[in-house]
Design goal:
Strand order of the largest sheet: 5-2-3-6-7
Number of helices: 8
Low-confidence stretches: none
Strand content: 25-35%
Number of strands: 7
Order of helices and strands: HHHEEEEHEHEHEHH
Oligomer: single chain
Length: 192
């Protein structure tokens, strides 16, 4: 994996191309800050799903739906390198294996910390859980606002993209999918 040492110099060149003086007070440290931010925002490339999930897999006879909803998501659109921000809702129906609940947001973050499109991000999460857990079904719904749509292009400030990936029982059984959709809508703003 490249270490990104060239990024500050490249950012400095971009600033010059934009007509800025990279040596002026407000921009002096910007190339280093941008490099650090990009390294953090793409740190998911350095992680592996198996490492995240494997030490938290447990044999359990529980066979009802498990949902982790309202997982905060921030990622970078690979087309414009602008953020998209939203919520991810993940469910699975176990078949003899469950995963520690905190591992699901960690998996979401791992894939989100890469250059992404929302559609791929949604399916990567679903496919990984399906492969590792081999459950009866997996569902992922993601809703996000994309700064590439808000700040440029069509400039639609109130638009939100919603994507889903339904596998197994969530794809095959409309009542299972409907139950999941109802449960992720319910209890918004619930404080315990």
């Amino acid at each position: 994996m490249p270490n990104g040492d060239a990024i500050p110099g490249l950012v400095e060149q971009v600033l010059k191309e934009l007509g800025e003086d990279p040596r002026r007070e407000g921009l002096e440290r910007t190339p280093d800050r941008v490099a650090a931010a990009l390294r953090y925002l793409t740190s998911g490339y350095e992680k592996d799903a198996q490492q995240i999930l494997n030490d938290a897999l447990f044999v359990e006879e529980y066979d009802e739906m498990v949902i982790v909803k309202d997982i905060d998501v921030t990622s970078l659109c690979e087309h414009h390198l602008l953020p998209f921000i939203g919520k991810c809702h993940v469910a699975y129906m176990p078949h003899k294996k469950i995963v520690g609940l905190s591992k699901i947001p960690r998996l979401v973050d791992m894939y989100a910390r890469r250059l992404q499109v929302q559609e791929r991000l949604t399916t990567q999460i679903a496919n990984t859980l399906n492969d590792v857990l081999q459950p009866r079904g997996v569902a992922v719904v993601m809703e996000a606002v994309h700064l590439c749509m808000i700040m440029r292009g069509v400039e639609k400030q109130n638009s939100k993209a919603v994507t889903s990936a339904m596998l197994g029982a969530f794809r095959d059984r409309p009542e299972t999918r409907a139950e999941f959709m109802e449960l992720i809508k319910a209890g918004r703003g619930l404080v315990l």
